[in-house]
Structure formats: C-alpha cells, structure tokens
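queue> holo job accepted (biotinyl-5-AMP)
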Amino acid sequence: MEELVPEAILDGLCTDWLGRRIVAFEAIDSTNRVAKSMAQQGAPEGTLVIADEQTAGRGRLGRRWLAPRGTSLLFSLIFRPAVEVRRAQGLTMICGLGVRQAIRIATGLPAQLKWPNDILLRGRKAGGILTELGLQAARLDYAVVGIGLNVNLDVAALPSDWNATSIQQELGHAFSRVRLLQEALLYIEERYRAWQAGEWPLKEWAAALDTLGQRVQLHTADGTWQGVAENVDEEGALLLRLDNGQLQRVFVGDITPPSA
Ligand code: BT5
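queue> job finished
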C-alpha cells in the first residue's frame, strides 16, 4: 500500500504554500477536529492534516464519514481568507472544483459535483466536503475544509443504500492517492489565489453541479419538498422552484431524485 507520509506528498508537489506544512496520522478521530484545534492555536494558512484512517470521521449535521484504513484520501486544509463570513462558502466551491479537476486530469474520469458538497462519479457519491468556520466576534478567523475521497475503496465495504462509488471502482484498477492529492492541492491553490484576487468561483461551480436544472426532492430538518433546482446564489444557497411557483432559498439540506 502506498504510504501517505509527508516526504511522499512533498515529492513532486507543485504548490507554493498549500499543503507544504503537513501533519500526518496513521489513525486519528477526525482530521477536521485536529485542524480546527491547530487553527485555534495559530497554525498558518495552508496547513494540511491528513490521516490513513479516521475513527470518528465527520460529515455534515452530525453524520459519519466512513472509510476503511488505507483506502481513501482523508484530509483537512486550514485557510484564513480575507472575506466576510457569508462569503466563506466560496471555499467549498473552490475545493470541490479543485478536486473535480484533479480527478478529471489525473484519471480521465468525468467527475461532477452535487449541491451542496458532494463529489460524484457517474452519479454516485465518491467524496464529500465539510467546511467548518472559526469566528472571532463576527469576523472570520479561520476556515477548515475537510475532504474525503474514496480512492481505492471497495464499495462493498459501505452500506449499499449510500449509492457510493470510488475511483478504483470506476477505473477498474487502483490509483495513486498521493498523485490525486498533489493535483488537488495545486488546483485548489490556483483557484484560491484567483478568489482572493476578486474572482468569484460561482459560475464555474454552478456549471459543475450535476443537479442544476433538474427536478429534485429536497430534504431538510424542516421537511421534504419537490421542485426544480433552478440555480445557486453567490453564498452557495440552492434556489429551488417549488411546484406552487415559489422560490425557496436553502442553505442546509440534501437533494435526491424526485420520488415517482
Ligand atoms: C460529507 O458529509 O459528505 C462531508 C464528508 C467530509 C469527510 C472528510 S474526511 C476528512 C475530514 N475529516 C472529517 O472528520 N471529515 C472530513 P454529508 O454530506 O453529511 O454526507 C455524509 C453521508 O455520506 C453519510 O451519512 C453517508 O450516507 C454518506 N457517506 C459516508 N461515508 C461515505 C463514503 N466513504 N462514501 C460515500 N458516501 C459516504
């Protein structure tokens, strides 16, 4: 098994600052938990926290991220962007686009994104992004973006109703986690630089979303709705056209194909 150690990650990494400070674990509870605690203690922008296994990997809304040891990319990045809090979802967009491009260029697979935070391969979930913000007063102090990507994962290891897949599953053979990580860091850094220079990633993100323009079912803590996923706005919210014609702006939720 290819080792995810700092020397291997740095060997051939083309970024200027992203992922050049690395904290790597064989096993840890959650790389997001560690990255947040490091960010609170002043760790610099660009710090990469990575693990071969997570014992309490986190998804959104208290959900779990599962990945058998050594099969996946499980990492978190610390950013300190100069943006208003309401603009911080731009990071989820940038990181999703960077990972999508890395998969496309490195493997040739037509990776897509799905609102709000999924990475898809042929319509199935191959990865997810968890962005967590640290505020000081009302100011953004840091953001941690956690990325889980199923690389050499046998999907039989996951519950079948998750509709999951992996790069290995789609390619028919294993692929280098280090190579994918290096490419992802490079494309994320490029987009982050452009974002901080004033280029907003919304258009590119909207174009990469698999579900826009389609009829969907939206699930939130308040209930389930059907409608057309019309667009996304600059804060990353989904604009759902309900069947009664009303436009609903949603920040937190999941979308699935409509029920018959
Ligand atoms: C996500 O949450 O998709 C964000 C996942 C972020 C994981 C990374 S790993 C590194 C970093 N450290 C952490 O602790 N977390 C981040 P959400 O949209 O809530 O999706 C969670 C749901 O995806 C679960 O309830 C399952 O249904 C499904 N799921 C869990 N593990 C999966 C996997 N390996 N592949 C596909 N689906 C999975």
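queue> The helical segments are 6-10, 31-40, 90-107, 167-171, 177-196, 202-208.
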